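Progress note, sequence design subtask.
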C-alpha cells in the first residue's frame, strides 16, 4: 500500500527511518513530509493516491478527504479528531484511527502545573524577581484541602484526578458516563451545576463534539466561586471563553490556566483571554513532550500494523 505521512511527528529522524524501513521491507511505499501545511490544495497534492494518510493536528477538511481518490485509512496522530472532515470520511467509507493515550500523562501534568501557577502567581513572581520586586502582594494558596472538579473522566480526566488527589484534595466529577473504576478511586460524581458551584478548581477534560461544544456556558461560569481557579487543557470550543474572560475581569473567577482556545495559536492580540486578568496562558502545549511524541509515533505505527493485518485498532466511530 501507499502510505504518506503528511506532517512531521516530532520524533528523531533515526526513529522515523526505522518505521519506514519496516514498512518498505513488507512491500509498502512510505513517503514523509518534514514540514506542516494547512493549505487544502497542498494537502490534496501530498495525499495524492495514497491508501493511507497520517496527520497529527493539521486540519484535514471534507474537501481534502473528497479529493483523496484512493484513501482507505486516515491515521490521526492525535487524541481528538475534531479537525478531521468526518462527514466526508463517513460518506467515502474512510476509516479513521487516533492515537488515544499518548498524551494522558503530560496533559494531566500540565493541568497541575497551571493550577500551581495560578494559585502561586508564578508569572507575576517571575516578573517581580527580574525587575527588583519582592514578595509583597504575592501570598498564594495551596492545592491541598481544595475541592477539585473534573469535567470528563476519560483517561486524561482520571489521571488528572489522581494527581490532584496526591496533593490531598477532594475530587468530584461530572461525566455523561459514570465509571465505577473512577468511583473506586474516591471520586464523587455530581451534576455539572453542582460541580461548578462546589469546586475550588475546575479542570476540563472532555472531547470537542456536538454534545460538548459550548458546554461550559456563561451561566455555568457564573455559578463558580469568586475564589475558584478554572483550567482548560482539553478544547477551546467547549468553553464560552468570552464569558470566562468577562468573569475574570470582574473578579467573579479568581484565575484561569488555559492551553486551548477557539483557534490554534498564534492567538490574536484582541482575543479576550489575552488581556483578561489573572490568566496563565500556554500555546497548546499540553500534549507536547519528548516522551509523548515517542509514544504517539509508537501508537500511530502500531495502528498501521494492525490495519494492514486486518485487525484495526483505535478505530473512531463516525
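Output:
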Amino acid at each position: 500500500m501507499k502510505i504518506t505521512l503528511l506532517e512531521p511527528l516530532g520524533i528523531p529522524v533515526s526513529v522515523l527511518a526505522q518505521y519506514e524501513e519496516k514498512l518498505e521491507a513488507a512491500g509498502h511505499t512510505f513517503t514523509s513530509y518534514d514540514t506542516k501545511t494547512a493549505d487544502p490544495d497542498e494537502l490534496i497534492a501530498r495525499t495524492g493516491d495514497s491508501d493511507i494518510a497520517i496527520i497529527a493536528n493539521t486540519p484535514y477538511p471534507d474537501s481534502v478527504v473528497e479529493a483523496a481518490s484512493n484513501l482507505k485509512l486516515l491515521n490521526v496522530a492525535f487524541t481528538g479528531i475534531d479537525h478531521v472532515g468526518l462527514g466526508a470520511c463517513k460518506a467515502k467509507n474512510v476509516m479513521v484511527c487516533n492515537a488515544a493515550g499518548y498524551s494522558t500523562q503530560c496533559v494531566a501534568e500540565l493541568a497541575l502545573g497551571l493550577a500551581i501557577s495560578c494559585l502561586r502567581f508564578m508569572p507575576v513572581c517571575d516578573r517581580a524577581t527580574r525587575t527588583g520586586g519582592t514578595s509583597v502582594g504575592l501570598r498564594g494558596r495551596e492545592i491541598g484541602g481544595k475541592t477539585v472538579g473534573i469535567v470528563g473522566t476519560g483517561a486524561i480526566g482520571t489521571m488528572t484526578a489522581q494527581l490532584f488527589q496526591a496533593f490531598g484534595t477532594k475530587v468530584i466529577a461530572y461525566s455523561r458516563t459514570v465509571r465505577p473504576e473512577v468511583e473506586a478511586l474516591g471520586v464523587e460524581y455530581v451534576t455539572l451545576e453542582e460541580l461548578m458551584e462546589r469546586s475550588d478548581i475546575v479542570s476540563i477534560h472532555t472531547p470537542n463534539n456536538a454534545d460538548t461544544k459550548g458546554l461550559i456556558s456563561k451561566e455555568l461560569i457564573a455559578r463558580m466561586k469568586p475564589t475558584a481557579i478554572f483550567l482548560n487543557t482539553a478544547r477551546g470550543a467547549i468553553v464560552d471563553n468570552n464569558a470566562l474572560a468577562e468573569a475574570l475581569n470582574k473578579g467573579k473567577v479568581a484565575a484561569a490556566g488555559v492551553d486551548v482556545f477557539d483557534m490554534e495559536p498564534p492567538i490574536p492580540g484582541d482575543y479576550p483571554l489575552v488581556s483578561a486578568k489573572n490568566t496563565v496562558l500556554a500555546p497548546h502545549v499540553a500534549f507536547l513532550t519528548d516522551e509523548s511524541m515517542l509514544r504517539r509515533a509508537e501508537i500511530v505505527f502500531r495502528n498501521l500494523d494492525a490495519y494492514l493485518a486486518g485487525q484495526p485498532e483505535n478505530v473512531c466511530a463516525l
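The longest helix spans residues 290-308. Work on this subtask will continue into the next period as scheduled.
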